[in-house]
Write a structure and sequence with these properties.
With 324 residues, the protein is of the alpha+beta class. The chain has ten helices and eleven strands. A six-stranded antiparallel sheet has the order 1-2-3-4-6-5. A three-stranded antiparallel sheet has the order 7-8-9.
Length: 324
């Protein structure tokens, strides 16, 4: 460190592992830090006992660290602020909040959330990446971006990008890569599967058609052959849909679509589904041997005037049965 020569990240990672296991504090960025826990494979939560603050710390080359500092100045609510940076160790630290208020985006992505919450997060990421594009930066890694989700006590979730993406390959990427990556992420959010890049596009039947059309267009598989030419265009459609969805969220069509999405979240333990004429509802068997009818599905099936909703659920059942 005294020589000023950058230290290999591989060596730094090993030292951090040893310090974590032995509970030995380290001098990083001019601070004496205690390693609290790991964040994935190459991140750490560290505690500064002098400042009484916690930080999320991860590797970042000097060029990327400078880029992130610049991006935070341009959009403070979209890119995490650099608390300190150790150039010799290539370690960048950002403020970290207590457990329950902040989670990794990787963990958030594998959970089930409301349609509105997914749209909030996606729109926030799109807004941040739009700023990058305006300054000739391309993220290139939006299928599962390195980010933090903050959950304040009041108000919507906040999404902070922690890296500048695949900056080393920026000359080989175009904004189209980010459009594809973001809609790929959204497809996974609702299906927990990645869209195929070679096979025919598989529609998502569990979300409103207008949103499914946006995702399909972003994946360059639109029925009419059209695609998005800028992140601004994609962002505009997402915002327009979200606004209309919030206005109409109590209408039958949105209630039905969301109920089917909630129903899908139970399907990892699915065994058999059949219509029961006697009770007028579905009998659903799961691998645990229980029978579960989600309340929203029951509510929809009881609405005599909404036959189209019943057929929507039946179409989902056919899709599930054909997949098994």
């Amino acid at each position: 460190r005294k020589s000023g020569i950058p230290i290999s990240p591989i060596l730094t990672h090993e030292v951090l592992n040893i310090a974590f296991e032995s509970k030995v504090p380290l001098n990083i960025g001019g601070r004496k830090l205690e390693l609290q826990k790991r964040l994935g494979e190459s991140g750490w939560v560290v505690h500064d006992p002098d400042q009484k603050k916690d930080y999320a710390m991860m590797f970042a080359q000097p060029e990327e660290a400078q880029r992130l500092t610049n991006l935070h100045k341009l959009k403070p609510d979209g890119f995490a602020e650099t608390a300190f940076y150790d150039a010799a160790l290539s370690l960048r630290a950002v403020p970290y909040f207590s457990s329950g208020q902040q989670i990794r985006f990787y963990d958030f992505l594998d959970e089930h959330h409301s349609l509105s919450e997914w749209l909030n997060v996606t729109i926030q990421i799109a807004e941040s990446v739009t700023v990058m594009h305006k300054h000739r930066y391309v993220h290139g890694d939006l299928r599962a971006p390195h980010a933090m989700i903050q959950r304040p006590e009041e108000g919507p979730v906040r999404t902070l990008l922690l890296n500048a993406g695949a900056y080393a390959w920026e000359s080989e990427l175009t904004p189209q890569a980010d459009i594809y990556g973001l809609t790929n992420m959204l497809y996974y959010a609702f299906t927990k599967q990645r869209p195929s890049s070679t096979d025919p596009y598989h529609p998502i039947h569990t979300i409103p058609f207008e949103l499914e059309k946006i995702i399909r267009k972003g994946l360059e598989k639109s029925l009419d052959g059209s695609t998005y030419h800028s992140m601004d265009d994609l962002l505009g459609d997402l915002k327009s849909f979200h606004k209309n969805y919030l206005i109409d969220q109590h209408e039958d069509k949105n209630e039905a679509a969301w109920a089917m999405y909630e129903f899908q979240s139970h399907l990892q333990f699915f065994r058999k589904l059949s219509w029961n004429d006697g009770t007028g509802k579905f009998d659903i068997e799961f691998s645990q041997g229980t029978v579960l009818i989600p309340a929203d599905i029951e509510f929809l099936l009881k609405k005599q005037e909404s036959g189209s909703q019943k057929w929507g659920v039946i179409l989902l059942a056919v899709q599930v049965l054909s997949a098994h």
